Amino acid sequence: MKTDEGYIKFISDWTEGPAPERAATDLLDTWRRPLHRAGLIGHYADLGIGYGNISVRYGGPGQFIISCTQTGHLPTTTGEHYALVTACDMDENRVACVGPAEASSESLTHAALYQLDSEINAVVHVHSLRLWEELRGHVATTSVNVAYGTPQMAHEFARLYRDTDFPTSGIAVMAGHEEGIVSIGRTLEQAALRVLSIAAGPG
Q1: Is residue 43 scored above 70 in pLDDT?
Q2: Residue 118 near residue 20, CB atoms below 8 Å
Q3: What is the residue-averaged pLDDT of the chain?
Q4: Is the pLDDT of residue 52 over 50?
Q5: Model's pTM, two decimal places?
Q6: What is the DSSP string of the chain?
Q7: How far apart are CA 82 and CA 92, in angstroms?
Q8: Are 190 and 122 in contact (CB under 8 A)?
């Protein structure tokens, strides 16, 4: 199920431009580093593709800074590895972004999460087969029939936010995206620590 990881499924309106604000990208790198060390963000060497991404709300309504596509192999990042998503259209499956490279293939999912609540200011998407198998069905879990990076995922997260403890736990499993787990938070620190604490626990 990992073979479609890392591929952009939406229409990408990318405008090449400067790196986003350094203070924001430095903060993202600060919390991305422990996620990478824990193997929650990384690179499938056999497939030659990266996995996992991180973002923070920034700018106008619906805008956020997110790691660029195919950066999972990097243990540390700089501003050159992030893009500002300026607009998303779920119905048209379209993402507009500006930066040194294209925004992550999970940008549409991040956008859907930010739309749920104005108090969600950070999103972390990681991979862990162990955690995915342990948590699936025991925490908020999307339908197995919904794939990552699709408009349907936006509706799934809206359902979880309405019908489960996702708003308080901040953790959800993507059943149709093997190994995929998302974490949300009022701050980037909260979003990152939520998944890091689970990963460090017994299991």
Answers
A1: yes
A2: no
A3: 91
A4: yes
A5: 0.92
A6: -GGGTT---SEEEEEE-----HHHHHHHHHHHHHHHHTTSSEEETTTTEEE-EEEEE-SSTT-EEEEBTT-TT-SS--GGGEEEEEEEETTTTEEEEEESSPBPTTHHHHHHHHHH-TT--EEEEEE-HHHHHHHTTTSEE--TT--TTSHHHHHHHHHHHHHSSHHHH-EEE-TTSTTEEEEEESSHHHHHHHHHHHHHS--
A7: 24
A8: yes
Instruction: Summarize pLDDT for 170-181 with one digit per residue, the tens.
Output: 999 999 989 999
Structure tokens at 166: 């996702």
**Mean pLDDT value of segment 51-55:** 95
Do 59 and 71 contact (CB within 8 A), yes or no? no
CA nearest neighbour of 76 among 101, 108, 54: 54
Decide: residue 140, CB within 10 A, 0-12 exposed, 13-18 middle, 19+ buried. buried
Structure-block tokens of residue 23: 């203070």
Residues 100/144, Cβ–Cβ less than 8 Å: no
Q: pLDDT per residue over 54-87, tens digit each? A: 999 999 999 999 999 889 999 999 999 999 999 9
pLDDT at 27 over 90: yes
Amino acid at the residue 201: G
Q: What letter represents residue 32's amino acid?
A: R
- Domains assigned to the chain: 2-200 (3.40.225.10)
In angstroms, the CA 89 to CA 35 distance is 29
